[in-house]
Design goal:
With 161 residues, the protein is mostly helical. It folds into two domains: 4-81, Rna Polymerase Sigma Factor, Chain: A, CATH 1.10.1740; 93-160, Arc Repressor Mutant, subunit A. Helices cover 73% and strands 0% of the residues. The chain has seven helices and no strands. Helix 1 (4-26) runs antiparallel to helix 2. The chain starts with a helix and ends with a helix. 16% of the residues are buried.
Length: 161
């Protein structure tokens, strides 16, 4: 009779390729699928004792993978949203409570390069912490125009994720 570790290893070897295929299909950047599958197996190991029927391992793993995928997406969106929605004017010490990662800034820069210069200038000034009215005064547009441009930028970021 196999012990828990041997049974888990057998399951990993059997379903790893299927899970990687699903993750590659749903993730656009190359390192993410492997990380996602690794996180799936880590979570599966924690709850492996709860798997009653070994024949149901594949749907169980896919469910875990889908939840991990949603968790990764949510974390990524929260990081980006923290950068986009951070308004230093509303925070007493003037600093964002979110610590953006290097990849987040690269991601935002890529989106900004796809935008027109007036649009990207508006967004860059807003991300630097200037209020709607201040950005409007700097670039010579009404504050509502600044708000609309920034909302469109948030929507574009959301669509890219």
């Amino acid at each position: 009779m196999m012990n828990k570790e041997q049974r888990f290893t057998k399951m990993v070897l059997r379903y790893e390729d299927d899970l990687l295929s699903w993750a590659r299909f749903n993730f656009k950047n190359p390192p993410a699928p492997e990380d996602l599958v690794q996180d799936t197996f880590l979570r599966a190991w924690r709850f492996f004792d709860q798997l009653e029927d070994p024949e149901k391992a594949k749907p169980w793993l896919i469910t875990i993978l889908r939840r991990e995928y949603a968790r990764h997406w949510e974390l990524a969106w929260n990081r980006i949203e923290g950068i986009i929605y951070c308004d230093p004017v509303d925070i007493p010490d003037g600093k964002c409570k979110f610590e953006p990662k290097q990849d987040d800034h690269i991601f935002l820069e890529e989106i900004l390069t796809q935008c027109s210069p007036t649009f990207s200038t508006t967004v860059e000034l807003r991300l630097l912490g200037h209020g709607h009215e201040e950005v409007g005064e700097i670039i010579g547009v009404p504050k509502n125009t600044v708000g609309v441009r920034f909302k469109r930028f948030r929507d574009k970021v959301r669509n890219e994720l």
